[in-house]
Amino acid sequence: MSFNELAHQYIDGEWLTGSGSWDIIDFNPYNGEKLCSVTVATAAEVDRAYRAAERAQPEWAAAGPYERRSVLEKAGLLIGERFDEIVEMIIDELGATRFRAGYEVRAAQDFLREAAEQALGPAARLLPAAAEGKENRLYRLPVGVVGVISAFNFPFLVTMKTVAPALALGNAAVVKPHQNAPVAGGALVAKIFEDAGLPAGLLNVLVTDSAEIGDSFIRHPVPKVISFTGSDRVGRHVAATAAGLFKRTILELSGNSALVVLDDAGIDQAVEAAVHSRFMFQGQVSMAANRILVDRTVHAEFTRLFTARVAALRTGDPRDPDVRIGPVISGFQADALTALVEEALAQGATAPVRGRTRGNLVEPTVLTGLPEDSPLLRQEIFGPVALLVPFSGDDEAVRLVNDTPYGLSGAVHTAELERGVRFARRIESGMFHVNDSTVQDDPKAAFGGEKMSGLGRLNGDAAVDAFTTWQWMSVQHGRTHFPF
């Protein structure tokens, strides 16, 4: 596989050139090398892809769970065979370090295994009925066609964890990958499923932009569910557009997670978790610990150890095994992060660690002393900038954690596990972890956020709920007596 081989639209089992009048250029964010270019798909190709999915889906649903499982298992085997090749492509397209790229590919394998199991899950329930001689049956049916709008930060995983269960449950899918990850988030997934024997039309990939297709990807009459991963600003528009057409949405949106260090925490472990939670993949993770809240009784010790660890993180070529911080995804993002740090310093913050910006390389920065009313404490920071915030006691910590419009993930560190559980239960967040990182995903655990961090859940039973619908059928074995 090469970038140029995969630089196409994938519609109804064919690799095609888009009919748009301009190209999306896929660049290596570290060295600026052009990886490939893709001529954009138009609204006509959106229609073609959805219609192909609509035609193919009924036969796929009728094929049965064992056939679907077989294709998913084959796809998982192919990822294993092509593991190193996929890792190399993710490093090039995203600027991910080798560790980070490998993590993503292994996670995608785990989600494929889970999806293969879901294909054989229960498809019906028999319930008692109040009326004599009657039985109630509940059939779990595929929704039909799912539209998937993927993100750039974990594109291979995000697309796979949506597409795999949707296919396993008898649906078809149309994917629109992010412009910065058209291969890892789209074409690569399509190629794996094509080679695994997935029938044509069941998975389609459209590389395009809203500037070309408007809202046609969401508004098209075929998809019954739109799964979107990205910012809350765009997610709000997706939700409003889909709701007006009575489409179900699964929205995995922005975060402003906090990692909390209580007064009895193991400081060394908390420091390690905080560094990982904030700086994994250059901080370009919605679950990243934007805010690190530390009890005042241990704040000085934590800050000393944390800043030393952060200052030692090496920034540079993601292929260098000693590098921990690669490039951010674009020059626009690098400039925005630099401006954010300057804004914080102007508000009175101090920077015990102040990183430089060199092209797309943004070295880590640690900020302290932000005023409590600073808007930076309530927004998502998508890059290697950490905010250290002191607090006094658990109640204040809970208030600070919840003082944000977001509620995606978080973590608390304490020597008393049940104290951590009690703390976590007070947080307005879809996910929260005790004595661990804020950045976590698991194929069986419901994944998603509260407040402006999204709607709905993925993974495990939640994915089954997301991509199926219920049909109630009653069967009268005797005779119903009607009042007329």
Could you explain the architecture of this structure?
With 484 residues, the protein is α/β, with parallel strands linked by helices. Strand 7, helix 6 and strand 8 form a beta-alpha-beta unit. Helices cover 39% and strands 22% of the residues. It has a seven-stranded mixed β-sheet, sandwiched between helices. Strands 9-8-7-10-11-23 form a six-stranded mixed β-sheet, sandwiched between helices. Helix 5 packs parallel to helix 6 and helix 11 packs across helix 12. It has 16 helices and 24 strands.
Q: The biggest beta sheet, please?
A: 7 strands, mixed
- From the alpha carbons, calculate the radius of gyration and give it in angstroms: 24 Å
- Distance from N terminus to C terminus (CA atoms, Å) equals 70 Å
User: Into which percentage range does the β-strand content fall?
Assistant: 15-25%
The assigned structural class equals alpha/beta
Helical stretch tally: 16
The averaged pLDDT comes out at 96
Give the fraction of residues assigned to helices: 25-40%
Q: Runs with pLDDT <50, length 5+?
A: none
- Give the neighbour order of strands across the main sheet: 14-17-18-13-12-20-21
Shape: globular
Q: How many β strands by DSSP?
A: 24
Present the secondary structure layout.
Elements: H1 3-6, E1 9-11, E2 14-16, E3 23-27, E4 34-39, H2 43-63, H3 65-81, H4 83-94, H5 98-118, E5 124-127, E6 134-142, E7 145-149, H6 155-168, E8 172-176, H7 183-195, E9 203-205, H8 210-213, H9 216-219, E10 225-229, H10 232-243, E11 248-252, E12 257-261, H11 267-279, E13 289-295, H12 299-311, H13 331-346, E14 350-353, E15 357-358, E16 361-362, E17 365-368, E18 385-391, H14 394-402, E19 406-407, E20 410-413, H15 417-424, E21 433-434, E22 450-451, E23 454-455, H16 460-467, E24 468-476
Parallel strand pairs: 7-8, 7-10, 8-9, 10-11, 12-13, 12-20, 13-18, 17-18, 20-21
Antiparallel strand pairs: 1-2, 3-4, 5-6, 6-24, 11-23, 14-17, 15-16, 19-22
Helix pairs in contact: 3-5, 4-5, 5-6, 6-7, 11-12
